[in-house]
Amino acid sequence: MASENSDLLTAGKIAKDLQVSDGKVKKVIKERDIKPEMKKGVCNYYSQDAMIEIKAALEKK
Question: What CATH architecture applies to the domain 2-60?
Fold first, then answer.
């Protein structure tokens, strides 16, 4: 299970990897209604597929 969770990313980590602001990533997540793969407390964790979708959405803007 640890290896599965290590592939999950927070919105902040996605923003850092894509070199954009947290706000832009969170806006795309909200607009596209992207659901987290896992929640731990108040943190949402997203899959690599979600990051690809977010990246594609940001490139269209």
Answer: Orthogonal Bundle (1.10)
Long-range pairs for 55-61: beta carbons < 8 A, 24 or more residues apart: 55/18, 57/28, 57/31, 57/32, 58/18, 58/20, 58/24, 58/25, 58/28
Instruction: Indicate the pTM of the whole model.
Output: 0.87
Tokens encoding 55: 């990246």
Q: How confident is the model at residue 2 (pLDDT cuts 50, 70, 90)?
A: very low
pLDDT tens per residue, range 13-55:
999 999 999 999 999 999 999 999 999 999 999 999 999 999 9
For residue 39, give the 3-state DSSP assignment. strand
